[in-house]
Amino acid sequence: MSPVDSFDEPDDDLLARVFLTRVLEPGDEIGGRWVREFGVRGVVGRLRELGGPLPGVSRKRWDGLVARAERAVPREDLAVAQEAGVRFVAPGTAEWPRQLDDLGDARPLGLWVRGRADLRMWALRSVAVVGARACTEYGAHMAATLSAGLAERGWVVVSGGAYGVDGAAHRGALGANGATIAVLACGVDRPYPRGHTALINRIADQGLVLGELPPGDHPTPSRFILRNRVIAALTRGTVVVEAAHRSGSLVTARAARRLGRHTMGVPGPATSGLSAGVHELLRQDAVLVTDAAEVVELVGGIGELAPERRGPVLPRDLLEAGARQVLAALPARASASVAEIARGAQTSQDDAVARLYELRALGYVERHDDGWKLTRQAMISVRGDPSAR
Question: Same structural domain for residues 266 and 203?
Answer without folding.
Answer: yes
